[in-house]
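Archive entry: two folds, one per protein. Generate the first.
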Amino acid sequence: MSRKPEIVVVAEKRVINSEINMYSEELDFSSLTVTTDIISALQTLGYPVVYYESPATFVENIIKHTNSIVFTNLWGGHHSRNKRSYLSAICESYSIKYI
């Protein structure tokens, strides 16, 4: 039986509080609940998961993940119009598979 590929999750784990509302500039992030639930679901399905809270920590460890699949759509960053493309661009540069 073949081993399932390692999944790398890069996402914030922000706690939603009363200061965040529909007028906030802080809406485009992954919450603690969402990130934790996705990691748990992947692990329940038998995938080994590695978690990083930022693209910077992912890049510091990128050499470990040349055969991994990176889950790129959770990291939201802060005040950048290009934030959704950072991880995809990094993966493309290193020929790492991503979704």
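Generate the second and append.
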Amino acid sequence: MKLVLLSSLLLLGLSSPPLAASSEKDESWAPALTTNLLYDAGLTPNLGIEFPMGRWSLSATWHYAWWAKDEPHYYWQTYGGVLTLRRYFPMKAKDRLCGHHVGLYGQVLTYDFEFGGRGEQAASWQWAAGLEYGYAFKIAENLRLDLHLGVGYMGGRFERYDPEYGYYVWKETLNRRWIGPTQGGVTLVWLLRPSKNR
């Protein structure tokens, strides 16, 4: 009977993964919080979350700004979001969300911009999709700085208007068909669990 118990315990120990390996695997899936410093500098608060999946990741970000002064006719109003699927090429396998990366993204946003003269606002949701390239490097054990640029297609309808005699007078409605850079960022990435050096 004792021999059977000892054999069972030995088999169980051999078949169970080490605690350190299990912990490392769990940490490799821990998400990160992100904020695009370029948006922050433009008075557009934003927040994102990125989920590592081995050398892949899936991220979602949202921005929102609603600044307005009617009398001088200053408007900086926009909100929208981006979904991005990335493939990382890290220098070291243990470094999460580090190194060169390429990705696919989709984006939607709306806006109203005016700076004392002719204004422009989205007449419908603006949308974009394209390819992204970037590079992320470690600035602390649980912090990354990610530089990236996305090039693709943006479409949607938008309107131009002039402030006249206390009213906003519509001038024209146009269709956007833009091919080129549609997003970019200098993004601070905070790993909710720091990578462990082994």
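Annotation attached to the second fold: Residues 29-111+125-151+181-191 form a domain with the Porin fold (CATH 2.40.160). The two ends are 41 Å apart (CA to CA).
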